[in-house]
Each structure stands twice: as C-alpha cells, then as structure tokens.
C-alpha cells in the first residue's frame, strides 16, 4: 500500500499561487510514492481485523448465553440474577476506566504543538428540533 504525494503537492502549489507567493508557479510537482504497508503486512492486518469483527459479534452473544445459563442452573436464582447484574455493571465500569485511561495515554504521546481533538460525536441521530 503506497501513498502518492503528488495531489497534496499540487493542492499546496495552487494555494500558494492563489496567495500570490512569488515563484510559486515554478514549484515542481513530483509523483513521490511512500510505502505505508507491505503486501505481507496488509494481509496480516486484514486477518486480524476479520478476527476482531467476528469476536465483536460473538463475544457479547457468548456472554449473554453464559449469564442466562448460569441463572438457569443456579439453585438460588435471585442471588444469581443479582450477581450477574453486579458483574455486568462492574464490567461496564472497568471498560469505561480502560477507555479513559487509553485515551489519556494516547493523548499524552502527542507532540507539544498538537492540540488534542475532542471525542468523536455520537452516531445516534439527534431528535429533530421542535417547531416554535
């Protein structure tokens, strides 16, 4: 997988010409390609991505099946339901802490001049504005 830098150079050159920078029209635009990933790395990356896609679907299904099975075979079902609920809440809280910690560690590695971006907006649609 390669990245061709010519379109970027052409865009920068056009902007410089538009801003009336002297001799900007003489800047050559070369087709320089930078290799991002080799073919072998790309194949390995695709396999890993596919495994994550499958796991993203089947892990919650498996967890739900095990929780339901545990509740069904329990002799004290109320206690099993409470334990399952508390375990799910604790797991959610730990996941939230892990995401926050990962975000903090990732943003801490940014160079000093790069401002951290806010989190991406939610993908759930907003309700339509009410009419006055």
List the helices and strands and how they pair.
Layout lengths: L1 E3 L1 H13 L14 E3 L3 H35 L3 H32 L24
Antiparallel strand pairs: 1-2
Key phrases:
132 residues; two-stranded antiparallel sheet
Give me a quick take on this structure.
This protein is mainly alpha-helical. The chain is 61% helix and 5% strand. The chain is elongated and about 85 Å long.
Distance between the termini: 53 Å
The residue-averaged pLDDT reads 86
Radius of gyration: 26 Å
How many helices in DSSP terms? 3
Q: List SSEs in N-to-C order.
A: EHEHH
Helix content bin:
55-70%
**Beta-strand percent range:** under 5%
Number of strands: 2
Which stretches are poorly predicted, pLDDT < 50 over at least 5 residues?
none
Q: Please, what is the oligomeric state?
A: single chain
Lateral strand order in the biggest sheet: 1-2
> How many strands, what sense, and barrel or not for the largest sheet?
2 strands, antiparallel
Q: Which of globular, elongated, flat, extended, rod-shaped describes the shape?
A: elongated
Structural class: mainly alpha
Provide a descriptive summary of the structure in words.
- Helices cover about 60% and strands about 5% of the residues.
- Strands 1-2 form a two-stranded antiparallel ribbon.
- By secondary structure, it is mainly alpha-helical.
- The chain is elongated and about 85 Å long.
- The protein is built from 3 helices and 2 strands.
- It has helices spanning about 5-20, 40-75, 75-110, and strands at about 1-5, 35.
């Amino acid at each position: 997988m390669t990245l061709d830098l010519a379109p970027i150079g052409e865009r920068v050159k056009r902007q410089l010409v538009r801003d009336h920078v002297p001799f900007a029209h003489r800047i050559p635009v070369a087709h320089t390609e930078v290799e991002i990933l080799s073919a072998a790395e790309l194949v390995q990356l695709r396999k890993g991505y596919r495994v994550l896609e499958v796991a993203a679907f089947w892990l919650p299904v498996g967890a739900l099946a095990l929780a339901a099975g545990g509740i069904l075979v329990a002799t004290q079902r109320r206690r099993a339901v409470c334990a399952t609920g508390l375990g799910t809440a604790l797991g959610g809280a730990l996941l939230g802490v892990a995401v926050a910690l990962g975000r903090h560690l990732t943003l801490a590695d940014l160079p000093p001049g790069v401002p951290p971006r806010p989190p991406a907006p939610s993908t759930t649609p907003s309700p339509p504005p009410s009419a006055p």
